[in-house]
Design goal:
297 residues, alpha+beta, Gyrase A, domain 2, Elongation Factor Tu (Ef-tu), domain 3, 2 domains, 6-stranded antiparallel sheet, 5-stranded mixed sheet, globular
């Protein structure tokens, strides 16, 4: 587990990364926007939004980045979930005039941090950047894959720090943001378990696929388990591996999903029993002692 830069250091400026392991589903046809709103938890329109694609039981098939710009609409889903999502969505097209197609040529570049917007504008990219909070607030730019190297160079020359995929993974753990394919996979978790009910779900739109299950959890007040962030004091050599058991006084309450090591601490995300979720709760993973620092979301 490599040592990583601290989120608070990068977030004071701006950093950019290509969203990894994503594929764009182009949504065409006159009914595309309204139809897409019926299969996602978020509102789909002429902007950038973050949401989830659920199955009928309310389990997340993938989190989704929706980009509506220049008269086109696309949903960026996890590569490993593409076949499953297309299978679900195609069954939802009844009388609507909607065409779904895979677009392998488009990618997303996220620019995050306190100076993201100002540096994007100074780079002359303000008109193509849409507001979107992924890790630390900022914006997103949609571009052809062939244009990504030049785009990243332009951002770097404007003062934006470029991140590698491993660095992004570390920042997401520090920000307590779940990562698809690591903290959750296809059809294993709900929005409430991951803490996405506020950031990825619109509570004012109409019905959508999986809506009934989401409402049922809302009525119960909570899910039976919850993704949380843990912090362990470290002297530079400690490692917390995914799958490691999290204990309270010798009783297992869950397991690690992802982790990252900084100079003086190890941070991790873990899925634990909701009954044990409280900030400051002391936990152990092997010989390491730590505490629950915050809920993921």
């Amino acid at each position: 587990m490599a040592r990583s830069v601290e989120l608070r250091t990068l977030a004071a400026g701006a950093f950019a990364y290509v969203l990894p392991e994503r594929v764009r589903i182009a949504i065409g046809g006159p009914d595309g926007p309204s139809w897409l709103g019926g299969v996602l938890t978020c509102v789909a329109g002429s902007s950038a939004t973050y949401g989830c694609a659920l199955n009928v039981a309310g389990k997340i098939v993938s989190d989704v980045y929706v980009i509506g710009a220049n008269g086109e609409l696309g949903a960026y889903v996890g590569t490993k979930s593409l076949a499953r999502i297309l299978g679900l969505w195609e069954k939802q097209i009844v009388m609507e005039e909607v065409v779904l197609s895979r677009d392998a040529m488009s990618m997303l570049v996220l620019i995050q941090g306190a100076s993201a917007r100002s540096l994007v504008e100074s780079a002359g990219l303000g008109e193509v950047a849409l507001p979107l909070d992924d890790v630390a607030g900022g914006c997103v730019i949609e571009a052809d894959a062939a244009a990504i190297p030049d785009l990243m160079t332009t951002l770097h020359e404007a003062g934006v720090t470029r991140l590698r995929e491993a660095e992004l993974a570390s920042l997401r753990v520090q920000a307590a943001r779940a990562t698809f394919g690591a903290d959750f996979v296809v059809e294993t978790s709900s929005v409430h378990e991951l803490g996405l009910e506020h950031r990825a779900v619109s509570h004012t739109k109409g019905m959508y696929l999986g809506h009934r299950a989401v409402c049922s959890t809302e009525m119960r007040g909570r899910a039976s388990r919850r993704l949380v962030q843990l912090r362990f004091d470290s002297h530079g050599k400690d490692v917390v591996l995914p799958g490691a058991e999290v204990n309270i006084e010798g009783q297992a309450i869950g397991s690690i999903t992802t982790s990252t090591a900084l100079d003086r601490a190890v941070f991790a995300l873990a899925m634990v029993k909701h009954s044990e979720v409280a900030q400051g709760t002391r936990v152990r993973v092997g010989d390491l002692a730590g505490e629950i620092t915050q809920l993921a979301g």
